[in-house]
Amino acid sequence: LSLADRWILAEFNQTIKAYREALDSFRFDIAAGILYEFTWNQFCDWYLELTKPVMNGGTEAELRGTRHTLVTVLEGLLRLAHPIIPFITETIWQRVKVLCGITADTIMLQPFPQYDASQVDEAALADTEWLKQAIVAVRNIRAEMNIAPGKPLELLLRGCSADAERRVNENRGFLQTLARLESITVLPADDKGPVSVTKIIDGAELLIPMAGLINKEDELARLAKEVAKIEGEISRIENKLANEGFVARAPEAVIAKEREKLEGYAEAKAKLIEQQAVIAAL
């Protein structure tokens, strides 16, 4: 099985364990949250993305493994969710069961999923979490620097731990496909590299060289407009909170909400100023 397949099986079994514990203690609210977290954030988000390199260019054996894992986890997830969302799970299960070779008439008479500790691959969990960190870091750089999502980037890594370098070498396909990378290069620890935007993740520093990716003057002008816009919002809220009449009449919840907005704008301004400094140094 691929790393993604081993990871989702480990995540699913951890979910089964936590979900059953919540049901056993009658914490149906916690059970529903556990189910939502796995379904939305792990299975439908990351796992489906991580299968793309295999589906688009894997060997026949890899394709068989991923297809089998996909339908196996989906079928088990439907059984897990059935007590909380019975009708839709029955409807979907009637279609999925054919792919799994199941001939039973209804999901209601199927066994409830059992936790299998042998499928919790700790190495797969750790390696995949690291890959997710790296992919998110590259995507954040794209967003912060206003780089088009489809533009291939050069990724440099510096100061890699042994684990980080191994993870890069073993999973270049995942990284290049999901982070849209043109190339991946591991630099020596003392190599300063070209002028780049950097992010620190566990065991490595990621660098994306900026040369040729953005128009420096245009981007600085855009950021200046964003800063001015946020400063206007900050000024508006500060004036509102300085108004004794507003503070005296407004409910505490409304005042708290305005203060929360002010903090959010202040954080956004600080990030924009940081981006300005990075781009000005290019």
Kindly report the spatial arrangement of strands forming the biggest sheet.
2-1-4-3
Q: Give the beta-strand count.
A: 4
Q: Could you estimate the helical fraction of the residues in percent?
A: 55-70%
Structural class, by secondary structure, is alpha+beta
Instruction: From the 3D structure, determine the CATH topology of the largest domain.
Output: Isoleucyl-tRNA Synthetase, Domain 1
In percent terms, what proportion of residues is strand?
A: 5-15%
Radius of gyration: 24 Å
Kindly report the oligomeric state of this protein: single chain
| CATH class descriptor name of the largest domain | Mainly Alpha
Describe the largest sheet: 4 strands, mixed
Question: SSE order in H/E notation?
Answer: HHHHHHEHHEEEHHH
Q: Shape, please?
A: flat
Number of helices: 11
Give an overview of the whole structure.
Keywords: Aminoacyl-tRNA synthetase, ATP-binding, Coiled coil, Ligase, Nucleotide-binding, Protein biosynthesis. InterPro entries: Anticodon_Ia_Val, M/V/L/I-tRNA-synth_anticd-bd, tRNA-bd_arm, tRNAsynth_Ia_anticodon-bd, Val-tRNA_synth_C_sf, Val-tRNA_synth_tRNA-bd, Valyl-tRNA_ligase. The chain is an alpha+beta fold. The protein has three domains: 3-120, Isoleucyl-tRNA Synthetase, Domain 1; 123-209, hypothetical protein PF0899 fold (2-Layer Sandwich); 216-280, Helix Hairpins, CATH 1.10.287. 67% of the residues lie in helices and 9% in strands. It is built from eleven helices and four strands, in the order ααααααβααβββααα. It has helices at 3-24, 28-50, 52-57, 60-81, 86-100, 122-145, 162-170, 172-178, 216-242, 244-249, 252-280, and strands at residues 153-158, 181-186, 196-201, 204-209. The chain has a four-stranded mixed sheet. Strand 3 and strand 4 form a beta hairpin. Helix 9 (216-242) packs antiparallel against helix 11. The radius of gyration is 24 Å and the shape is flat.
